[in-house]
Write a structure and sequence with these properties.
The chain is mainly α. The chain contains 5 helices and no strands.
Length: about 170
């Protein structure tokens, strides 16, 4: 009988230990899920803020700053589970379209200023960025290249005439 009482006591102790562990585990699990929810809310908030920063950057800043903001938003939105590929593609398209338009203005400005190297850099930026979003037009590119070559050639001829006149 004494042995039976010891076994009952040991079984009861083990049962109490298991119940205690079960209770502790369920409490930790609840705490973790609350922490996970809070972390998820924070990630979603950060993604939303980064989207606002991106939109502001696209309006006010140059291409590369906005491109960085686009990448940051994409990363935080993926972490938060709120990433939308269609929205990303649309924002990227808007960003590159703005760059394409600015590159053409840049090209014309530097062409007028007779800064042909800078005009060429703007033309190459236009080409690369228009290719990135699938709006590149080879004919337009060749026309702009010809315009640049013609302006360069005219400047060289003008300089030569001045040199001949001064001799």
């Amino acid at each position: 009988m004494d042995m039976f009482l010891k076994l009952k006591t040991i079984a009861a102790a083990i049962l109490l230990i298991l119940l205690g562990m079960s209770y502790t585990y369920s409490q930790r699990s609840t705490e973790q899920s609350q922490e996970e929810k809070a972390g998820k809310r924070e990630l979603k908030r950060e993604a939303a803020l980064n989207l606002l920063r991106l939109k502001k950057s696209m309006e006010e800043e140059a291409f590369y700053a906005a491109r960085v903001a686009l990448n940051i938003w994409r990363s935080t939105a993926m972490d938060a589970g709120t990433f939308d590929q269609e929205q990303y593609d649309e924002l990227k398209k808007q960003l590159y379209e703005k760059s394409v338009n600015n590159s053409l203005k840049c090209f014309e400005f530097f062409l007028e200023e007779e800064s042909f190297h800078d005009a060429n850099m703007c033309l190459q930026t236009w080409k690369i960025h228009s290719q990135e979003i699938g709006i590149f037009d080879q004919t337009t590119y060749e026309e702009l290249q010809d315009k640049l070559i013609k302006a360069r050639t005219e400047k060289i001829l003008e300089r030569e005439k001045k040199e001949e006149a001064s001799d």
